[in-house]
Amino acid sequence: MTNKKAYNQAVRYLSKRPKTIWQMRQYLAQKGYAQEDVLKVIAKLISYNYLDDEAFARQFIDSRIRSKPKSVFALGYELSQKGIAPELIQKYLEPYNDLDLACKAVAPKINSWCCLEKSECRNKLMNFLRYRGFDYSVCQAVWEQ
To answer: What pTM was computed for the model?
Structure first.
Protein backbone atom coordinates (compact mmCIF):
# COMPACT_ATOMS: atom_id res chain seq x y z
CA MET A 1 0.00 0.00 0.00
CA THR A 2 2.77 2.41 0.87
CA ASN A 3 4.38 1.80 -2.50
CA LYS A 4 1.19 2.81 -4.29
CA LYS A 5 0.82 5.95 -2.18
CA ALA A 6 4.46 6.85 -2.74
CA TYR A 7 4.12 6.18 -6.47
CA ASN A 8 1.03 8.39 -6.76
CA GLN A 9 2.74 11.18 -4.85
CA ALA A 10 5.81 10.86 -7.08
CA VAL A 11 3.69 11.08 -10.24
CA ARG A 12 1.95 14.21 -8.92
CA TYR A 13 5.39 15.71 -8.19
CA LEU A 14 6.49 14.92 -11.75
CA SER A 15 3.33 16.40 -13.28
CA LYS A 16 4.55 19.96 -12.73
CA ARG A 17 7.84 19.57 -14.58
CA PRO A 18 10.52 16.92 -15.18
CA LYS A 19 12.75 15.96 -12.28
CA THR A 20 16.02 14.12 -11.84
CA ILE A 21 16.37 10.82 -10.02
CA TRP A 22 18.19 12.62 -7.21
CA GLN A 23 15.39 15.20 -6.85
CA MET A 24 12.78 12.43 -6.69
CA ARG A 25 14.80 10.51 -4.11
CA GLN A 26 15.09 13.65 -1.97
CA TYR A 27 11.39 14.44 -2.34
CA LEU A 28 10.16 10.97 -1.37
CA ALA A 29 12.60 10.73 1.53
CA GLN A 30 11.42 14.13 2.77
CA LYS A 31 7.84 12.83 2.66
CA GLY A 32 8.87 10.08 5.07
CA TYR A 33 8.88 7.01 2.84
CA ALA A 34 11.25 4.16 3.66
CA GLN A 35 14.40 3.84 1.56
CA GLU A 36 13.17 0.51 0.16
CA ASP A 37 9.88 2.08 -1.00
CA VAL A 38 11.71 5.03 -2.52
CA LEU A 39 14.00 2.75 -4.53
CA LYS A 40 11.05 0.67 -5.78
CA VAL A 41 9.11 3.76 -6.86
CA ILE A 42 12.14 5.23 -8.61
CA ALA A 43 12.79 1.94 -10.42
CA LYS A 44 9.16 1.90 -11.58
CA LEU A 45 9.33 5.52 -12.75
CA ILE A 46 12.53 4.80 -14.66
CA SER A 47 10.97 1.75 -16.31
CA TYR A 48 8.09 3.94 -17.53
CA ASN A 49 10.60 6.58 -18.72
CA TYR A 50 9.14 9.13 -16.31
CA LEU A 51 12.60 9.68 -14.83
CA ASP A 52 15.57 9.99 -17.19
CA ASP A 53 18.57 12.06 -16.15
CA GLU A 54 19.99 12.19 -19.69
CA ALA A 55 16.75 13.51 -21.16
CA PHE A 56 16.44 15.94 -18.26
CA ALA A 57 19.96 17.29 -18.85
CA ARG A 58 19.35 17.74 -22.59
CA GLN A 59 16.02 19.48 -22.06
CA PHE A 60 17.36 21.67 -19.26
CA ILE A 61 20.33 22.86 -21.31
CA ASP A 62 18.22 23.49 -24.42
CA SER A 63 15.66 25.41 -22.41
CA ARG A 64 18.26 27.54 -20.61
CA ILE A 65 20.13 28.35 -23.80
CA ARG A 66 16.91 29.35 -25.54
CA SER A 67 15.44 31.47 -22.75
CA LYS A 68 18.20 32.54 -20.36
CA PRO A 69 21.72 31.76 -21.62
CA LYS A 70 24.41 31.37 -18.98
CA SER A 71 28.03 30.32 -19.05
CA VAL A 72 28.96 26.67 -19.45
CA PHE A 73 30.21 26.72 -15.85
CA ALA A 74 26.91 28.16 -14.54
CA LEU A 75 24.85 25.63 -16.51
CA GLY A 76 27.04 22.81 -15.20
CA TYR A 77 26.67 24.07 -11.66
CA GLU A 78 22.87 24.21 -11.96
CA LEU A 79 22.78 20.66 -13.29
CA SER A 80 25.05 19.40 -10.53
CA GLN A 81 22.73 21.02 -7.97
CA LYS A 82 19.92 18.93 -9.45
CA GLY A 83 21.90 15.72 -9.02
CA ILE A 84 23.08 15.15 -12.60
CA ALA A 85 26.28 13.11 -12.85
CA PRO A 86 29.43 15.05 -13.86
CA GLU A 87 29.96 12.76 -16.89
CA LEU A 88 26.51 13.66 -18.26
CA ILE A 89 27.07 17.35 -17.59
CA GLN A 90 30.35 17.29 -19.49
CA LYS A 91 28.84 15.25 -22.33
CA TYR A 92 25.94 17.63 -22.95
CA LEU A 93 27.80 20.90 -22.39
CA GLU A 94 30.76 19.97 -24.59
CA PRO A 95 29.30 21.41 -27.83
CA TYR A 96 28.82 24.87 -26.30
CA ASN A 97 31.33 27.65 -25.76
CA ASP A 98 31.04 30.70 -23.55
CA LEU A 99 31.58 33.29 -26.27
CA ASP A 100 28.60 32.10 -28.33
CA LEU A 101 26.42 31.81 -25.24
CA ALA A 102 27.41 35.31 -24.09
CA CYS A 103 26.59 36.81 -27.48
CA LYS A 104 23.22 35.05 -27.43
CA ALA A 105 22.53 36.33 -23.90
CA VAL A 106 23.32 39.93 -24.81
CA ALA A 107 21.46 40.05 -28.14
CA PRO A 108 18.01 40.96 -26.77
CA LYS A 109 19.45 43.66 -24.47
CA ILE A 110 21.74 45.45 -26.92
CA ASN A 111 18.99 47.62 -28.42
CA SER A 112 17.95 49.00 -25.04
CA TRP A 113 21.56 49.85 -24.18
CA CYS A 114 22.49 51.52 -27.49
CA CYS A 115 21.19 54.93 -26.35
CA LEU A 116 23.44 54.98 -23.28
CA GLU A 117 26.90 56.51 -23.07
CA LYS A 118 29.69 54.15 -24.07
CA SER A 119 31.00 53.66 -20.52
CA GLU A 120 27.54 53.04 -19.09
CA CYS A 121 26.72 50.61 -21.90
CA ARG A 122 29.96 48.74 -21.22
CA ASN A 123 29.19 48.56 -17.49
CA LYS A 124 25.69 47.21 -18.14
CA LEU A 125 27.00 44.59 -20.57
CA MET A 126 29.81 43.49 -18.26
CA ASN A 127 27.55 43.26 -15.21
CA PHE A 128 24.84 41.45 -17.16
CA LEU A 129 27.28 38.82 -18.40
CA ARG A 130 29.19 38.47 -15.12
CA TYR A 131 25.90 37.85 -13.32
CA ARG A 132 25.29 34.94 -15.71
CA GLY A 133 28.64 33.34 -14.91
CA PHE A 134 30.82 34.50 -17.78
CA ASP A 135 34.42 35.33 -16.94
CA TYR A 136 36.00 38.70 -17.62
CA SER A 137 37.81 37.66 -20.81
CA VAL A 138 34.54 36.50 -22.40
CA CYS A 139 32.79 39.71 -21.32
CA GLN A 140 35.62 41.75 -22.81
CA ALA A 141 35.50 39.78 -26.09
CA VAL A 142 31.72 40.37 -26.38
CA TRP A 143 32.23 44.08 -25.70
CA GLU A 144 34.84 44.31 -28.45
CA GLN A 145 32.49 42.64 -30.92
So the answer is: 0.84
